[in-house]
Amino acid sequence: MRHGLARLLTRSARRYFVGAGQRWVFAPPAPDWSPPRIERTALYLHVPFCRNVCPYCPYTKVPYAAALVAPYTRGALAEIDRWADAIGPAEISSIYIGGGTPTLALDSVAGILARVRARFRVTGDVCIETNPADVDEAVVGRLRDAGITLVSLGVQSFRPEHLAFIGRRYEQSVAARALALLAQGGFASVNADLMFALPNQQISDITADLAHAEQCGANQITTYPLFTFPYTTVGEYLRLSDVRMPGLRVRHAHYRAINAWCAQHGYERVSVWGFKRGGVPRYSSVTRDGYIGIGPGAGSHLPDGFLLNTFDLDAWICAANAGRTTIALRMPFADAMAGWWWLYWRVYDTRIPLDELDKVLGKDAPKARRWLRAMAHIGFAVQHAGYVELTEAGAFWMHLVQNHFALRYVNTLWTHARREPWPQAVAI
Ligand code: SF4
Questions:
Q1: Which of 33, 120, 226, 401 has a CA between 20 and 30 Å from the CA of residue 408?
Q2: Is the C-beta atom of 53 inside 6 A of ligand 1?
């Protein structure tokens, strides 16, 4: 009943904002479809190897095996060439390397980056996700040599009981040492990922984690709740066990405590979940206006729609190395979609520039401005000269929308994509 109501509300909202012209269906791309020429885009590289598979993790990954790295690397190089031939020698305004655990295959990453630089014009930052268990002095040097400028460490928690709950098998000191090494490594920005709203987590645990990350030298902190994707082991575990995820009130209290701590310690909010200190460049994976995705399970956001690569590593390697498309699914954009998608991510940024809004939204701009005024009216936003900024309450509710979005859309799409390498149509 509750899910039915949520689905109805979601459908009504997206119809109201984006219009009836947008079909919310991913399907295999038509045989004669090819990407448009693109002047400027970001690039996402997915490295699908992990040493241990964490029970809560929804991402595309396989257990690390050295023998898989060479065919993966050949596939990624072929995929880059295919994109370069299709869209032309575009400017790549930023590169984000995620996974999986990219630090398990750093030689491969360095080779792939070299090919990206050879085929495109790279002008922006190169960001990478790192895992505490892999970071030592040698790895820090190799990251720098590969031209990485921004790093993020998946700390998640410094407390042993929370590390155990999320399936991390190292001691808390490992993450602290890794973070300190990265902070001294000469990168432009070092981000620490921390989780909140874990079962039995207290506010004092969260503020202690934040303080620990600060002491280790993190100049950006990204906090996020555990997404309980139903198909992950944690999703099953929670259904079968007595463990209860904290409810809305506790989650809100944690979020308020994080905001208060960050404000007291000079970290300004740069997104719903992210805080950074000083003038360092912002580390961010998801708010780019457009990107091409390399690797199994990687998504692409083009001017004319979303694409999703096959999630199956073998199928992806086979297709890429045979010169065939690795794209399993595509959702074309109706005219209005690109503008509303831009606004969704600016709201996620918690700061919406109004001049740009008028340009990007076009005829829908007055409708968007009306909604921003309504948000300001109920205390979720504040209007400044030239931009609108979300308040803490607005950011919290945006965080719930994101949670809902992640669970509903991403779960539906990824469940199908994980079930078969080349799914048929998926309605979200
Ligand atoms: S959370 Fe990170 S390390 Fe754990 S399985 Fe997922 S991608 Fe791998």
A1: 33
A2: yes
